[in-house]
Structures
1.
Amino acid sequence: MASQNLIHAVFDDDDQLLDAVKEIRGKKIHIEEIYTPFPVHGLDKAMGLAPTRISIASFMYGCFGLAVALVLTNYIMIEDWPQNIGGKPSFSYFENIPAFVPILFEMTVFFAAHLMVITFYLRSKLWPFKKAENPINATTDDKFLVVLESSSSPEKDIEFLKILGAIDITLKEEEH
């Protein structure tokens, strides 16, 4: 197994964290992971992460929900059990579409919302009873942790992180 030296740098301010990440990336040091107690606006861009595609998935899930709603309302109200409700004819689906608009809208939103949440959980590997992976518990309260790969001279990296405002820095050796 290959081992790798990682540096854990703890910050106590989100603005300081954001500035530090920009400086770290500017020095071409690879950031393994960042743990934060709340979302930090702009951190994804500072880390150089690709934009999310959840909006595309949401649109596709909504289209799927709309298709299910169209098939469901057509089958139930026109083919399987046609009923004359309020004088509306039941022999043509397109004549009844105004009555089905709320159902079509709700099913579109239902499918998009639920399938997006399921996709998010699967994509981020968050499933029931999953054990927390954060290295220090303070990242769930008020601290920010940057895990980065150590270069050939970790002493220089540690000094650089102290200049950036890290309040606690530890060198860890992890095996892959």
2.
Amino acid sequence: MDIDSLCARLRSGANSLALHTEAQKNKALLCVIDSLQKNKTVILAENAKDVDAARQKGTSEALVERLALDEKKFSSIIESMGVIVQQQDPIGEQIAGWKTPQGMQIRQVRVPLGIVAIIYESRPNVTVDAFSLAYKSGNAILLRGSSSALASNKALVKAIEEGLEAAGKDGVKDSIALSECTDHSDVHDILNAVGKVDVVLPRGSSRLINTVVQEARVPVIQTGAGICHLYVDDSADASMAASIARNAKMQRPGACNAIETILVNENIAKKFLPLMAEAFDGKVNVRADETCYKILSDASAKNIQKAAEEDFGYEFLDFTVAVKTVASVDEAIAFINSHNTKHSESIVTKSLDNAKKFQAQVDAACVYVNASTRFTDGGEFGFGAELGISTQKLHARGPMGIKALTTTKFLIDGDGHIR
């Protein structure tokens, strides 16, 4: 990959896109939607090739599910783009403004970041989501998906480019590029493209994220692996907690917002754990500490085994969960803050005081009370889509929508002012 010429093309596209009005960007996105729909059969066929290849390699079904596109997922992609089209263009928005004592007028306004690179694994929907969010916020996007989704991504990007061409002068084809490299040399080039790439986002496994964070010389917006916890307080509605546990673990176990550890207050463990086991219906492998193991054994629960220390703070991304008793909400908070990845955490409780303490003291991008962590998602938050879940504390945190891809500049108007 010739990173210099590629970034030069994208910079030209970003400069052109920065001048486009909201109406022009929306027209282009609508043309892309039309092109994606026209190319749906081809896109799904190419995706099927990727899925077949993944299964032949022995990829787990939980990870295959991330890779696979079907009619429902394709419709969801189109719907997400529709939401983005309807959202207000953030570019040019005035954040603040004031007049200095000397009479100069200062305005702080939103502007695009420029060239955004995203390095991601499996999920071909990210290809469309990342492009749509970048385009609406006036940015060019460099996509580096995994080799396991290359056929899918090539078909999607081809359809996107055809849509931008169909938009005529309102479409900026040079605003998107896909790296088709199947080794990792291009990743090195992207991470070292100082002055060419304005920001890079990793989205995928902890290994990928750590590699990007450790090796990048360009700015990184860090997204995190999802070691998410559910804490069942002693005041919790045990049935509600079991329902939330089932959803947060089983609906999509390969997602980063699925729970990996359940902490249960020792005073409610005997009531909650059998209900949890019933909700899991023998489909989840439960790795339990000594206390939980005895309670679950006495309840004749299926698929249980004693937990090892390394099971806590581990991202299973599968139908496996670690379970542990704690003595109090304070112990739960301390355990979570020492084992999590600052992604999404939840408490089930009837205590307002414990709910407030949990939300105030747990260090995570999203902290829930009496709700599943599976709601940590740009679509669920009303953003239409997301580039990822930022687990850092600078600039953007949580699901990243349009505004996360903007920065600000100060515009100062004077009248011959000198200092």
3.
Amino acid sequence: MTDAKKNGLTYADAGVDIDAGNALVDRIKPAAKRTNRSGVMSGLGGFGAMFDLKAAGYDDPILVGATDGVGTKLRIAIDTGNVDGVGIDLVAMCVNDLICQGAEPLFFLDYFATGKLELDVAARIIEGIAEGCVRSGCALIGGETAEMPGMYPEGDFDLAGFAVGAMERGATLPADVAVGDVLLGLASDGVHSNGYSLVRRVVDHSGLDWASDSPFSTETLGAALLTPTRLYVKQALAAVRAGGVHALAHITGGGLTENIPRVLPDGMGVAIDLGAWDLPPVFKWLAEAGGIAEAEMLKTFNSGIGMVLAVDAGQADALTALLEEQGETVSRLGEVTATEGVSYTGALL
């Protein structure tokens, strides 16, 4: 008789360690506590999490939800072991979308799935999620850690995020977009979290690897490409509350070409001057090393602009000054036009 038949199989024998999961929850509780804000009613560990909208200051709120992941950028994090920033990416991809509706992010939940739970790796990822929440003013109020042997190769994991925000009724964006509105572009911190299947292909073709010296910075190539997505929440909300912001577009997959039209009324488009900002070195290298055409760059990557605001022309200067005071690098990209689509002048490359 085998030991298993004498003693009985356990969940741990099947590859799932409940004790490790409990240890992870204990380790991340301080990180989650850092994210507490008005409205939070319960901590981690319950079957659900509660949030009080009145305590958060809302009288007649509309809720907005968003969900996203980090995509194949995770492959670089897994291969290099540099997992500390992908939690920030996860939060940013969700909350940067929420603010485009005019909503303040209130709370965040994460889903972390792996074949075998490695406590230190998981904790570093979730601590990064908490940091992203702190930077964007939302609370990490729950999540799920799924240990699923046989579903993921050793060392692999996946992430998904879920954010809920709110606004007072009547404050929804986009609103009142008009021909002549000025486009203000906020600089990105790099590639952010879109286009990494193409990034990885370019790196393969270049003959470099993640440990190689970066051709465009002082870091290794892997570290440079893992620069976290910029969080625009507090800065953009400050501009919205100042008045004159008619629309915001988060520049994710689809780039400037496809994301800006999403917030425009039918019959309107935009004219953009590609000389209005300097293309960051990472994008110059990708374009050169991959032989990527300008049009492909503009519809695959953010190309150095992570968020675009369409604002009243009479308030563009004041809003630019406000955003710069908030730490943003602002470029005046162009304006809203009466012709559908995105037209470009000048050269990106």
